[in-house]
Amino acid sequence: MQSTVLKEKDEQIVLYRTGGEEFNVIFPGYTVAQAQPLVQEFFDRVKALRIPYNDVELNVTISVGVSSLHRTDHNPLDFYKRVDSHLYRSKKMGRQQITLE
């Protein structure tokens, strides 16, 4: 569902699972400032999800880290480590947060 939301905004945006319960979204050609409103909308939609399970309604939590490629990045792993660091900062600060570069 959330992948569809992103595709409605821009066909170039890619959502993929990196493992466990972690996902990445790539915004090709976007600056952090340009991606921010889309990230916020995605964040709000996921946060609002309510999943019925037996007699209970499950709430979804989301923590987000956002960064852009830097000229000083030597390889994609430099970028990925920075984004991952932002993600874990969001988690450490209590979850349900977005950490932007």
3D structure, described in words:
- This protein is α+β, with helices and mostly antiparallel strands and 101 residues long.
- Helices cover 42% and strands 25% of the residues.
- It has helices at residues 2-9, 32-48, 76-92, and strands spanning 14-19, 22-26, 50-53, 56-59, 64-66, 98-100.
- It has a two-stranded antiparallel ribbon. Strands 3-4 form a two-stranded antiparallel ribbon.
- Helix 3 links the parallel strand 5 (64-66) and strand 6.
- The longest helix has 17 residues, at 32-48.
Largest sheet properties: 2 strands, antiparallel
* CA-based gyration radius: 14 Å
Instruction: State the share of residues found in helices, binned by percent.
Output: 40-55%
What proportion strand? 15-25%
Distance between the termini: 27 Å
The H/E string reads HEEHEEEHE
Structural class: alpha+beta
Q: Give average pLDDT, whole number.
A: 89
Side by side, the strands of the main sheet go: 1-2
Compute the number of strand runs.
Answer: 6
Count of alpha and pi helical runs:
3
**What spatial form do the alpha-carbon principal axes imply?**
globular
Regions with little confidence, pLDDT below 50 for 5+ residues: none
Task: Quickly describe the structure.
With 101 residues, the protein is of the alpha+beta class. Helix content is 42%, strand content 25%.
